[in-house]
Design goal:
This protein is mostly helical and about 150 residues long. The protein has helices at about 40-45, 55-60, 85-105, 115-125, 135-145; strands at about 15-20, 30. The chain has one domain (about 15-145). The chain has a two-stranded antiparallel sheet with strand order 1-2. The radius of gyration is 17 Å and the shape is globular.
Length: about 150
C-alpha cells in the first residue's frame, strides 16, 4: 500500500515562469499553482495524521538518498506541456517508483512505467495548459489505477 506524506501549505495562483538558465533550450516552467478550494481542503483535513511508531521514530535516516540509482526509479521524462507538472511528478515519478518498489521490478522494463496523461486527461478540461493538483490525481489513481505506458 502506497502512502503520500502531505505537508501543510497554502497554495496560491501564480504566473508560470521559465526557470531554465539556458534560454536556447526547452523551458522549465514553475508556478501556476492551482488554488486549493474549500471542498479540497475539507478532504485534505480528514486524511488521518501519520504517526510514527517508537521503532520508526528511533530509526536513523540518511540525510540524502539518490533514488535515481535504484532500479525502481524511471528516467527523466519530457513533460510535453506546461499544465501537466503535478501529474508528471505524481504518476511518472512517485507512483511509478512506489509500485515498482512494491512489486520489486525495474523501471527500465517497458511495462513498468506509468504516464501522467492518464490522470491529466481527466483533469485538464481539454486544455494542455490547465493545471491540476496531486490531490485530484491521487483520487483517480485510487479509484481506477493506471495503465502502464509502453515507451
Amino acid at each position: 500500500m502506497a502512502f503520500v506524506l502531505i505537508t501543510e501549505a497554502n497554495l496560491i495562483s501564480a504566473q508560470l515562469v521559465n526557470c531554465n538558465p539556458d534560454t536556447n533550450s526547452m523551458p522549465w516552467y514553475s508556478g501556476g499553482l492551482k488554488t486549493i478550494t474549500q471542498s479540497m481542503q475539507q478532504e485534505i483535513d480528514v486524511i488521518p495524521k501519520f504517526i510514527l511508531s517508537p521503532n520508526s521514530s528511533a530509526t536513523r535516516l540518511d540525510s540524502m538518498v539518490d533514488n535515481s540509482i535504484l532500479p525502481y526509479m524511471p528516467p527523466i521524462i519530457y513533460q510535453g506541456y506546461q499544465g501537466i507538472c503535478a501529474q508528471a511528478s505524481l504518476v511518472a515519478y512517485m507512483f511509478t517508483f512506489e509500485i515498482n518498489r512494491k512489486r520489486n521490478v525495474s523501471a527500465s522494463e517497458p511495462g513498468n512505467k506509468y504516464h501522467p496523461n492518464f490522470t491529466y486527461n481527466f483533469l485538464n478540461y481539454g486544455s494542455s495548459d490547465s493545471g491540476s493538483t496531486f490531490h485530484d490525481g491521487l483520487r483517480i489513481l485510487k479509484e481506477f489505477g493506471c495503465p502502464d505506458s509502453i515507451t
